[in-house]
UniProtKB/TrEMBL annotation:
Pfam families: CarbopepD_reg_2 (PF13715), DUF5686 (PF18939). It comes from the Bacteria. Coiled coil: none annotated. Keywords: Carboxypeptidase, Hydrolase, Protease. This is Carboxypeptidase-like regulatory domain-containing protein. The keyword Hydrolase applies. SUPFAM superfamilies: Carboxypeptidase regulatory domain-like. The keyword Transferase does not apply. GO terms for molecular function: carboxypeptidase activity. InterPro entries: CarboxyPept-like_regulatory, DUF5686. It comes from Flammeovirga agarivorans.
């Protein structure tokens, strides 16, 4: 009896369970399965799976598994699976859904699939939670949170030509190089193809950082350079150090190749990247990490594809490693590929805290084939850092210069025993012979010639040992005063002296038959603080008020001022002495005293009108003091071989300038006095996916009566067709004059964000720009009564249209324009409209061109 009761009880439970199951099944059932790659059988996570004709579906999990609830058991259901980069796949599900597990295989597709949105409030990408924690602990893990840090750095830089084809080998210079390499062991890339090394360097340096305000400096201890290119080891040594390719991924964007790239851990990560979290943790440097693969959401963004390794919660979700390549759709010139590999090392400090500092940084950049007869050029940079010290800052004065050379940095650089002792890893036999190979190729006549031409283009001078002739743009000019002007100049370099630099010129005008000449001596008192004493004298032709132009002393633009209609020319004898010094990091001061004798070549009387309407030419004799302050923490300069500094990098921080000039009466025969104040700010602003803006805002005021040659004249452009970004291009030089002014010059580059969306144009890689130049000004009554007429051209009578006019304080001068850059990679075309101050002789519209290489 007991058995029967027990059997009945069990039977009742079983029948009840079966009945319950049948009732439920009659209402709904579950489709379960897995989505895999048809070729590799690997699971495809986060694929879209849904019932055709409905919104009923889900996403696969990290193992490609899915489950979909279906209510109508009697229907023939078709299940659809989709994933970006794969072909759509449909699979019929029989009535009743007998299959226990459905396997759906997706095939790769060359075309991008349409996005399918599965509406599910419960699902989110598992990588997002980790990335939110990265943002949460961002300040703690960012090295900029430290008071200070320092480390030793070794940088190995190599440039070589790869993918050498037969056409390229037939070039004479390439044949000479290959012939010079025959005595060496052939060097091949990872694919077994021969490569031609053209540059190799090793640099040992110490890198230092201090916070508030942020300052980073690199001291180059030793630098070894062998190159087939231009000869300026001093400048190159400062550029090939590790700090020029050291960027911080904790910033939302970072500068690389003079472009702003979007970090994969930007605070706006969901707007720019798609992420895939790998199911298992991996170990990097003994740290358990989450591996997250990422790729750009939009192929045209300057973003990367690859993997980041994020430490687990034990190490506060710090970035441990990134291995990535540049997205193929990025609108960037000449670059075929960019591979970046960075690895960070935790350094303990303050007992319980960790600082994550860059231990290894590797970059491989491939410059794409430009033409069929050209091969590809690759740049490889390997950086190894060690001996980290945290929160032991030095005195603030130590960080004044971003880059400095040890006095012995370029002495005995080929001592192989020294490098073997200080390299973190020994070179292979192939790597060791690269220096000798380049040295051998450099000795061939054709390479010498090409190297010399390249150096001449880059420096503007022809080098003959310690003496250099130039600048080349000044050799010839054509203008209304001299007609044909010929000039020969020279300068010394660091082979002549490490402490003294000389330069000079002599010129002659065919029309005025006058000799012009000048000389300068500069004494480098202290290179660390850029303390320089200079003296100069010149007797030369000048034109009125070009000192108002923002051309930053670029030789090409200064040379352009010697061309065309001078309008208000004068001869000047100028003796000056000046002192320059960096007061602190980013803050530079220049103080100058000048004695000037100015002979106007245009009719000019400083007081009143011309007597009996007969032109006069008043001589001006003056003694002036000039002081200029420049502050720009984000602007980085390096010294070149001629002991000048060149701007080689700048970040998004602004640069401020202030200068003051005063003329001192009765000093050394001075017959005038005046005061002038000028201020300026320039900056490059990155606007993320909207591009970047560069602007220059300046203003000035002359509160006293001043001689006409010292009044402000906006910088116009007298050169047809060629665009000058420092000028008002539809304004003539000398067209307007004032003693109070403010101007804005702005150019916004959309970086392809407009044209990239047009299918056919997108392939051309063109980039749109917007231009806006505005000038406000006025001329006070105290400076209106000077008698001035422009110089008459040959055979010309007085033309009032050539006379400088005062701007109306209520009406600004405005130029607006647009343009397309990156045509054939080098050509830029701008269309400019002048919207105010129209006259019968004014240029109200123009099309201008410019040339330049940029990434």
């Amino acid at each position: 009896m007991r058995f029967n009761l027990q059997s009945h009880f069990l039977l009742t439970i079983l029948l009840g369970w079966l009945f319950s199951f049948q009732v439920t099944f009659a209402q709904e059932f579950f489709i379960k399965g897995q989505v895999i790659d048809a070729k590799t059988n690997d699971p495809i996570p986060y694929a879209s799976v849904f019932i055709e004709g409905t919104t009923n579906g889900s996403l696969t999990d990290i193992n490609g598994l899915f489950t979909i609830k279906v209510k109508d058991v009697s229907a023939n259901n078709t299940i659809v699976a989709k994933f970006t980069g794969y072909e759509l796949c449909k699979k019929k599900i029989a009535k009743g859904g007998k299959e226990k597990k459905i396997i759906i295989k997706l095939k790769e597709s060359a075309t991008e699939l349409e996005e399918v949105v599965i509406k599910s409030r419960k699902w989110e990408n598992p990588a997002w939670a980790i990335l939110r924690n990265v943002q949460k602990y961002k300040n703690r893990n960012d090295v900029r949170d430290l008071k200070a840090y320092q480390y030793g750095s070794y940088t190995k830089t190599d440039i070589w030509v790869g993918n050498v084809n037969e056409n390229f080998k037939k070039k004479k210079v390439v044949k000479d190089i290959l012939d010079s390499y025959k005595t060496f062991e052939p060097i091949k890339d990872k694919n077994g193809k021969p490569i031609i090394p053209i540059f190799s360097s090793e640099t040992l340096s110490d890198v230092y950082y201090i916070r508030n305000p942020d300052a980073k400096t690199e001291v180059i201890k030793k630098s070894r350079i062998q190159s087939l290119g231009p000869d300026d080891d001093e400048m190159v040594s400062q550029i090939v150090g590790s700090s020029f390719v050291d960027f911080n991924l904790y910033q939302n964007s970072f500068s690389f190749l003079n472009k702003q790239f979007i970090s994969p851990i930007t605070s706006e990560w969901r707007n720019y990247y798609d992420y895939t979290l790998q199911p298992k943790k991996v170990e990097v440097q003994g740290v358990q990490c989450h591996k997250i693969e990422f790729e750009p959401r939009r192929e045209e963004d300057l973003a990367f594809k690859g993997a980041i390794f994020i430490a687990d919660s034990t190490h506060n979700y710090a970035l441990v490693k990134m291995d990535a390549i540049l997205g193929k759709g990025a609108n960037i010139n000449f670059i075929d590929s960019v591979h970046i590999d960075q690895e960070y090392l935790p350094v303990a400090y303050d007992d319980s805290k960790l600082a994550w500092l860059p231990q290894q940084q590797n970059f491989i950049i491939s410059i794409g084939k430009i033409a069929d007869r050209w091969a590809k050029v690759k740049l490889k940079i390997k950086i190894n850092n060690q001996d980290f010290i945290v929160n032991q800052p030095k005195s603030r004065i130590f960080y004044e210069q971003p880059t400095s050379l040890d006095p012995d940095a370029l002495i005995e650089t080929k001592d192989e025993a020294y490098w073997q002792q200080h390299r973190p890893n020994q070179l292979s036999n192939e790597e060791s012979q690269v220096y000798a190979m380049i040295d051998s190729a450099e000795a061939t006549p054709r390479v010498k010639l090409i190297s010399s031409v390249g150096d001449m283009i880059g420096s503007g001078h022809k080098k003959f040992g310690p003496i250099e002739l130039g600048p080349i743009p000044f050799l010839y000019a054509y203008n209304s005063v001299e007609k044909h002007r010929f000039q020969l100049g020279f300068q010394t370099n660091n082979e002549f002296s490490k402490k003294v630099a000389f330069s000079g010129f002599v010129g002659y005008g065919a029309k005025d038959k006058a000799w012009k000449y000048g000389a300068t001596a500069r004494f480098i008192l202290n290179r660390d603080s850029w303390s320089i004493l200079g003296v100069s004298y010149y007797n030369d032709l000048r034109r009125v008020s070009v000192n108002q132009a923002n051309f930053n002393s670029r030789p090409l633009f200064i040379a352009a001022l010697r061309w065309g209609d001078m309008r208000y020319p004068y001869m000047e004898k100028n003796a000056s002495v000046w002192y320059e010094r960096d007061l602190t990091r980013g803050l530079n001061i220049v103080g100058k005293f000048s004695h000037r004798i100015i002979d106007p070549l245009f009719p000019y009387k400083i007081d009143g009108s011309f007597e009996n309407n007969m032109p006069e030419y008043d001589r001006l004799i003056g003694s002036e003091i000039y002081i200029k302050l420049t502050y720009g923490l984000g602007h980085r300069y390096v010294a070149n071989r001629s002991h000048h500094r060149k701007l080689v990098a700048q970040d998004r921080r602004p640069r401020l300038t202030f200068d003051y000039t005063t003329g001192i009466p009765d000093l050394f025969g001075s017959n005038y006095s005046y005061h002038q104040i000028r201020v300026g700010i320039d900056q490059k602003v990155t606007l993320g996916k909207f591009g970047n803006t560069a602007y220059f805002l300046t203003g000035g005021y002359i509160p006293t009566k001043a001689p006409f040659p010292f009044l402000a004249m906006p910088f116009g452009n007298n050169v047809p067709i060629l665009y000058n970004k420092f000028a008002f291009n539809l304004m003539d030089l000398g067209e307007f004059v004032g003693d109070k002014w403010a101007s804005l010059q702005l150019m916004h580059r959309f970086e392809g964000n407009i044209l990239n969306r047009i299918p056919l144009i997108k392939k051309l890689g063109w980039r749109t720009v917007g231009i806006c130049n505005i000038m406000y000004g006025e001329l006070s009554s105290q400076n209106e009564n000077q008698a001035v007429q422009p110089q008459l051209l040959e055979g010309e009578t007085y033309d009032p249209n050539r006379q400088a006019k005062a701007l109306n304080s209520n009406t600004p001068y405005v130029e607006i324009g647009t343009g397309v850059e990156n045509i054939f990679k080098v050509l830029r075309v701008y269309t400019i409209w002048r919207t105010t101050y129209h006259t019968p002789s004014s240029r109200n519209f123009g099309v201008y061109c410019a040339f330049g290489l940029s990434f």
